Amino acid sequence: SYRQPFICPEGAFSYYVRPGDTLYKIALKFNTTVPNIIAVNNLPNPNMLYVNQQLCIPKVPLTTPCSLMLMARTDVTSSIRLSGNGVMHIGPAGESAFSVVATLPTPTELNLQRYDVYLLTSPTSSGGVSKQLQPVPNNTNLWAARIDGLEPYNISRNSVVYISGSSSQFPPPGERILLEGSMQNCK
Q1: What is the pLDDT of residues 95-119, one digit of tens each?
Q2: Distance of CA 138 to the CA centre of its chain
Q3: Phi and psi for 41 in degrees, rounded to 5?
Q4: CA 68, CA 80: separation in Å to the nearest integer?
Q5: Are 132 and 116 in contact (CB under 8 A)?
Q6: Pairing state of beta strands 114-120 and 160-166?
Q7: Which residues on adjacent β-strands are paired with residue 13?
Q8: How far apart are the first and last CA of the chain?
Q9: What's residue 110's pLDDT?
Q10: pTM to 2 decimals?
Q11: CA-CA-CA-CA torsion for 15, 28, 187, 165, nearest 10 degrees?
């Protein structure tokens, strides 16, 4: 039966069931457990899911510093190899920051004006933070940014990172995604 979309409780995000999904596959995808998904959603019959059914997925908080590689999108062609790395810093009081460094051509080579990093709270959300990347002095193709003052409960293993290029102001995750990574792969 169809239900109207609803707002997930604090500490969870919306996910819409896709063909072939099971609770087990969804739990693996978002680094959580089947019992956690059942509890947040109060599912009467957890063995019965339907395509486009909205589920709330509990966020798995990051509790230790970690780093991740950002992978180039296959649809981007450039004279240089695109690559990037991100590091999540978590201080003793729980304060956190995210730093990113990327190897990218000049924006004009890709008909763009600027590069931005987007740290989104989940793969299905446009909520999160962003910051414009700046060129690293004396390094032609190196770009960097640091996002400070992140609230730890908003950044979780479900969060995703995009580096995108824009020719104007564009909503997250930007006009043209160049690199992407998931906090799920943060080590």
Answers
A1: 778 889 999 998 888 888 889 988 8
A2: 30
A3: -100, -10
A4: 21
A5: yes
A6: antiparallel
A7: 57
A8: 40
A9: 86
A10: 0.66
A11: -30
